[in-house]
Amino acid sequence: MSTSPQPNEQPTGLPAALPAALPAALPALPALPHDSIAELSHDFRLANSRLTRRLRQQRADDELTAGQFSALCSVYSSGPLTLSELSEHERVTPPSMNRTVNALVAAQLVKRENAADDGRKVILTASEAGGALVQETRERRDAWIAQRVMKLSPEQQQVLAEATLIMKELAEN
Amino acid sequence: MSTSPQPNEQPTGLPAALPAALPAALPALPALPHDSIAELSHDFRLANSRLTRRLRQQRADDELTAGQFSALCSVYSSGPLTLSELSEHERVTPPSMNRTVNALVAAQLVKRENAADDGRKVILTASEAGGALVQETRERRDAWIAQRVMKLSPEQQQVLAEATLIMKELAEN
DNA sequence: TATTGTTATACTCTATAACTATA
DNA sequence: TATAGTTATAGAGTATAACAATA
């Protein structure tokens, strides 16, 4: 309630109306519909969470849940991880991640082992079945969104690719 | 499992490597790190859900949850809505939305009334307190992301604005 | 009969607090 | 004492199935 809205003090802050300040480098894109960074941020945030819900709707009954699959992908592609490392990467608390890991270990998709050098740590690794599941399921899970991304223009696809980088960056800080 | 990965048959489908096919309209943006639409879709999906979790982490204890605030914003800015309309907009089932609405009604932020023309329907409207809460809380809730968006380059801000439109479109279909 | 909303129930996701084991 | 992980507990979010009221 008492937090002020940060009147543009940043070097790259824009003066309320964005388009005029742009160096005309993006002619193919339509004008921004947002009057301010606050409005853009608000819109983006709501769009993000609604899209997450939309994607959740799409999941088939026999598939891992979104959280489980995301955690499995991280373990599989980012190598062996401790619980803390995984929970930080997934942006949840260790107890939350532990519950997800329990489900994955019970399904024999992830192996949980004690670290050799530090008895407090556990090392999480994707099992052979876990790695196979990622590879097999990935295309099917992504089919819904991939079909739609495929129908976008090359420019829009470029926008999504760029946005993905920005979103990763935002999620990490 | 049996769903095939759709070998680029779409008119706008790109031939596995994106950059070469682009009409050189976006010189300021770096080359795409994705080899295929499947990979972009996968990355984008995971980034989206991780960012949602990151944003959830940011919520203060005395604020509405993400789902409650999103629903309140929809009722407030998209006028009176029936339960079905709201649940479709928020991309959850009517029973799920009903639970959220119950919380908002209990907090006297939303009014639930019977529709005059159709006794089966309910009309949801933001109360005066609900509208005031949206306006008061919005800046504070968005402060975290707005601060970060403010530090992005104008080009990156443009990307986010464009991506927001695409994400809204994706969530609606 | 079909539609709209609600209740009942269950499972996942998430968090905080408190505990154990190790460093 | 500090750190890594786990267990206990609780609340929010979500869904399906079943039900009630209305059209």
Automatic annotation (TrEMBL), chains A, B:
Pfam families: MarR. It comes from the Bacteria. This is HTH marR-type domain-containing protein. SMART domains: HTH_MARR (SM00347). The lineage of its organism: Bacteria, Bacillati, Actinomycetota, Actinomycetes, Micrococcales. Residues 37-173 form the HTH marR-type domain. InterPro entries: HTH-type_Bedaq_tolerance, HTH_MarR-typ, WH-like_DNA-bd_sf, WH_DNA-bd_sf.
